[in-house]
Amino acid sequence: QVQFVESGGGLVQPGGSLRLSCAASGINASDYTMGWYRQAPGNQRELVAGITRDYRTHYSDSVKGRFTISRDNAKNTVYLQMNSLKLEDTAVYYCHPISRVDPWGQGTQVTVSS
């Protein structure tokens, strides 16, 4: 059974940092382009970062220069380092292969608040 377990979220002040982790099971995440998505209340889920099989990365304009996506294939895990967090980064964050239709994990809540 394919499963994604996100962790590392929390409450942080503006300007702070968090590192999210996504542990995949049931698939080899290294075979896929993996993405980090987020969904804020009342908004659609959006892709904020992706990393290809050969480690090429891409970011949405809203997070470029502040977020860094990485992967550890030996651990079947994808990470999202988030720096200089802003109020508008508040959302539930999910990881998922960009090209598959597997069930989504529960996500991890990131709340940026002063």
The secondary-structure element order is EEEEEEEEEE
Largest sheet: 6 strands, mixed
Number of continuous helical runs: 0
Spatial extent as radius of gyration: 13 Å
Q: Please give the alpha-carbon distance between the first and last residues.
A: 40 Å
Shape descriptor reads globular
Beta strands, count:
10
Structural class: mainly beta
The overall pLDDT average reads 96
Poorly predicted runs of 5 or more residues: none
- Estimate percent helicity: under 10%
The side-by-side strand order for the widest beta sheet comes to: 2-10-9-4-5-6
What attributes does this structure have?
globular, mainly beta, 114 residues
What can you tell me about this protein's structure?
The protein is mainly beta. It contains no helices and ten strands. The strands form two sheets. The protein has a six-stranded mixed β-sheet with strand order 2-10-9-4-5-6, with no helix packed on it. Strands 1-3-8-7 form a four-stranded antiparallel β-sheet, with no helix packed on it. Strand 5 (46-51) and strand 6 (57-59) form a beta hairpin. It is globular. It starts with a strand and ends with a strand.
Topology record:
Layout: E1 3-7, E2 10-12, E3 18-25, E4 34-39, E5 46-51, E6 57-59, E7 67-72, E8 77-82, E9 91-97, E10 108-112
Parallel strand pairs: 2-10
Antiparallel strand pairs: 1-3, 3-8, 4-5, 4-9, 5-6, 7-8, 9-10
Give a short summary of the structure.
The chain has strands at residues 3-7, 10-12, 18-25, 34-39, 46-51, 57-59, 67-72, 77-82, 91-97, 108-112. It has 114 residues and is mainly β.
